[in-house]
histidine kinase
Amino acid sequence: MTQPRIPAPPPELSVQKVHTQLAAIVCSSHDAIISKTLDGVVTSWNESAEQLYGYLADEIIGCKAEVLYPEARREEETAILDQIARGERLDQYVTDRVHRDGSFVTVSLSASPIVDADGQIVGAATISRDVGRLRRVEAKWRAMLEAAPDAIVAVDQAGRITLVNAQTERLFGYQREELLGQLVEMLVPPQARGVHPRHRMRYLSEPKPRPMGAGLELSAMRRDGTQFPAEISLSAIETDEGELVAAAIRDVSERIRFERQLREKNLELEKANKAKDAFLASMSHELRTPLNTIIGFTGTLLMGMPGPLNEAQTHQLQLVETSGQHLLSLINDLLDLAKIESGKVEITPVRIDYHSVIEDVVQSMGPLAEERGLMLTAHLPDEDCYAIADKRALGQILINLVHNAIKFTSEGEVRIELSREPDEEQWTLTVSDTGPGIADDEQARIFGAFERSTSARKHSDEGTGLGLYISHKLAELMGFHISVRSSPGVGSTFFVVPVK
């Protein structure tokens, strides 16, 4: 049994279908496609041509295409049409055309002959693409490339240099023309040239971006033969001609020299720090021990235990005791400062009772206040009051604040108070005095090392200006904050509160 034959479609239907498909392709193309007669009259004009040149199809069809040519390029039309009439093609010719608004458009132009059914050339078909934007982008890219602080070198798969920037010329001492087309190994020191091609091929087999400072210590060589340490980053670039490797090269000689100097300075500082620690340990023992002995024996003499003293002897011994206590205080401050600055202060935050710390300070500082004719009072809540703090550090802060208040207050009282607002969980510890006060413009700087307020300097020559600085640093280490509110002639109040 034979299968029925399916008749072929009429030839005119196939041609019509082809024409329809071609028309659809032309209409949807992103390139401007134009056809014209051999004398330059436009016969077709797609939507992309409208967008590129600004003319609608109805406006331009039937007109001479020379309206698209700048005055200086009118002869191009005749030359192109003559070339087409000879059956020749024009491929990717970059030229300028004129937009309807008068602006210039840079295009890449291709043209080919239109042949009729008899094989006669009856017109030209042109395809135009706007390359002006591409050129502007390329110009910006090249400007960035030329301005780059690193040497940029692009190499093809054969290892030949295809692109360099201005910094490459400056860094290596070659002219651009001397580098292009040459093997990149000319920039590699002789001792590494044998292995460099293998490294290059290995990278091309698995091209992954490698940033600067990827742990490789590399060297490069200038035209004069001098070598320098280099940091090199690599990246692969896909091009129409194949894959390229772009290298950014940076001379790190100065950085290495700086790092070496920094290491040397660090070693010197480490030695100096060890010497300082040894000195502090020596000072702690060699100075504090005899001072404590002197102060102790002086106290024994003043108590009259070895025998009675006359008025002059008592006065002289009191001067010795006072001076010894002052010197011991200075030494202790300097030792505390050294420990803080070297990070050797150990802070152990635990749950402590404020009452216990404050009562210890009142008992310790009470005799000094009484000796100065001052009242030292503590006003504490009846309830338990706790904080997370280092008990020794908090006690030292409170002693420093109370000692300062007693030292600079001539009459009145020094008051320690613990309070909190109804909606607050944290307790605020305050130390107030009726001393000379601190000027507004000095209140911020009194927490600096060796800083003393004007009123403090007028009142007493004693002190190093370290007490508040040490207290401030200890508070920071514990997570506390110290601030002051003061009025000259009225007194000062220092606040110690945990940071929320």
In short: DSSP finds 16 helices and 17 strands in the chain. The two ends are 99 Å apart (CA to CA).
